[in-house]
Amino acid sequence: MKDTPSPQVASLEHAPADHPKLPKPRIGVILSNLGTPDATDYWSMRRYLNEFLSDRRVIDYSPFFWQPLLQLVILTKRPFSSGEAYRGIWNNEADESPLLTTTREQAKAVGERMEARFGGEVIVDFAMRYGNPSTKSVIEKLRDQGCERIVFFPLYPQYSATTTATANDEAFRALMKLKWQPAIRTVPSYHDHPLYIAALAASVEQAYAGLEQRPDVLVTSYHGMPLRYLTEGDPYHCQCQKTTRLLRERLGFSGEEVVTTFQSRFGNEEWLQPYTVEEVARLAEAGKRRIAIMAPAFSSDCVETLEEINEEIKESFVEAGGEEFTYIPCLNAVPDHIDMIMAILERELAGWVK
């Protein structure tokens, strides 16, 4: 049976000679990550934090209460402390955050795999929910390159309204402003994907192989969120617990050798517990002198891992009597992580490519 040409190709076959030229129809892939400030100065940090903390998916308090507090109190002080944290991890050579560097590397690696498999039929790019490159600009860029169909891939293993949902929201908002919308598919969470669990396990095994003494405990630290979100139906907590369980089973560790914690608490209300910064201190006080820690909710190393874990959380462990603190990096652009991304994309591209 002969393939049916796309409507765009079919219409151009009989178009008049003066018809505007249109690009060859293609399929786009967007890897979406959280975001990054453009620089570490006060105003760059303020713009970034304002966009992030004004997102109703992230902070769902009434704007009548929240915005005055945010604009008049939080954003007058926090850009200084956040800027200092980013300066400590900044990629000075490229003059950008590590998250931006790594996400670009991931998109490049996936793009090369797609080129080898599908030729120029699939174009891969990346976007940020907050900051640049914006989701809107990348969708428009791919549309202008002829992408009539787009797979939108939020790089969050565990689903949360504060991450996956708001990334998808931003993509749909961009589509709302286009006269000619490309078709779009969004990628669901992959917290229990076998290749994801295998890649996490491989990173642990590699880290342990390089140590003289085996850590007493492996801490899997996930980004936190208010406990209230769980009771309101967000599946994030359950998916985090399942990721840890599958990882522990894959590694063959006992229940006492792996703990699940939550970091990056913000505000005064109760968040998911145990809090990482407190749990590592408790472990040290209980005689666990050597721990390893990883952040399975992050697809790329960023300020929460490179600064918060490696400084604040490490300090809490050492001050409580801990002796050896090993941070296991995120999966970043290692080959088995790219293998996993490719496997998921091939599933989501079904019916769109041969």
Description:
The protein has 354 residues and is of the alpha/beta class. The protein has a domain at 194-327: Rossmann fold, CATH 3.40.50. It has 12 helices and 8 strands. The chain has helices at 7-13, 42-53, 63-89, 98-118, 135-144, 161-176, 194-209, 227-231, 236-251, 276-285, 303-319, 335-348, and strands at residues 26-36, 122-131, 147-154, 183-186, 217-223, 258-263, 290-294, 324-327. Mean pLDDT is 94; it is low at 1-7.
Characteristic key phrases:
single chain, alpha/beta, four-stranded parallel β-sheet, 12 helices, disordered N terminus
Largest sheet: 4 strands, parallel
What is the CA-based Rg, rounded? 22 Å
Q: Write the CATH fold name of the domain at 194-327.
A: Rossmann fold
**Which architecture of the domain at 194-327 would the CATH scheme give at its second level?**
3-Layer(aba) Sandwich
Q: Please report the first level of CATH classification, the CATH class of the domain at 194-327.
A: Alpha Beta
Based on Cα principal axes, name the global outline: globular
Q: What is the H/E order?
A: HEHHHEHEHEHEHHEHEHEH
Helix content: 40-55%
Which structural class matches the secondary elements? alpha/beta
Distance between the termini: 14 Å
Would you spell out the secondary-structure blueprint of this structure?
Elements: H1 7-13, E1 26-36, H2 42-53, H3 63-89, H4 98-118, E2 122-131, H5 135-144, E3 147-154, H6 161-176, E4 183-186, H7 194-209, E5 217-223, H8 227-231, H9 236-251, E6 258-263, H10 276-285, E7 290-294, H11 303-319, E8 324-327, H12 335-348
Helix pairs in contact: 2-3, 3-11, 5-6, 7-9, 7-12, 10-11
